[in-house]
Write a structure and sequence with these properties.
Order of helices and strands: HEHHEEEEEEH
Distance between the termini: 51 Å
Radius of gyration: 15 Å
Strand content: 35-45%
Structural class: alpha+beta
Number of strands: 7
Oligomer: single chain
Strand order of the largest sheet: 1-7-6-5-4-3-2
Number of helices: 4
């Protein structure tokens, strides 16, 4: 089986985190470039800039600046169902140049929202770094949401 076929059949990476904010607030933080630039800084990223065309078929680009190099991530929004779910492709050097698929689900849980990120079609060698990246990113999203609570 070739590497692309293995990635397509590999189990999805799933990261969950409760966040003390409404699904609407969290959903918007995923699509607003300024918000993404603040919270999408996993694993010691120093600066992030983002461009989004937040509509089905629209493109996004996220550039994360590390200590010595930058990391570009881009893709296309496939589903935007505010405030419950979004699905987008995710392509970067970290995915070995392969298009992968990310689903973000926002599940109301009392006074908070459970954020579930499911990343599919990742190459085996990319799973650990993306697990750490999404975990760290959701921690920063929780901090961002707390600071920006209404």
């Amino acid at each position: 089986m070739n590497a692309a076929a293995q990635a397509a059949t590999a189990p999805a990476l799933v990261v969950r985190r409760p966040i003390a904010a409404s699904p609407e607030e969290i959903f918007d933080a995923w699509l607003e470039p300024q918000a993404l630039g603040i919270w999408m800084r996993p694993n010691g990223i120093r600066h992030t800039s983002a461009k989004t065309d937040a509509r089905v078929g629209g493109r996004y680009e996220i550039i994360m600046q590390g200590a010595e190099e930058s990391y570009s991530h881009h893709g296309v929004y496939r589903v935007i169902d505010r405030p419950r779910r979004m699905v987008f492709t995710w392509l970067s050097r970290g995915t070995e140049g392969r298009e992968t698929l990310v689903t973000v689900e926002l599940l109301p849980a009392g006074q908070s929202t459970e954020v579930v990120v499911t990343h599919e079609q990742l190459p085996e060698g990319a799973r650990e770094s993306h697990d750490k990246g999404w975990t760290s990113g959701l921690e920063r999203l929780a901090e961002f949401s707390t600071r920006n609570a209404s």
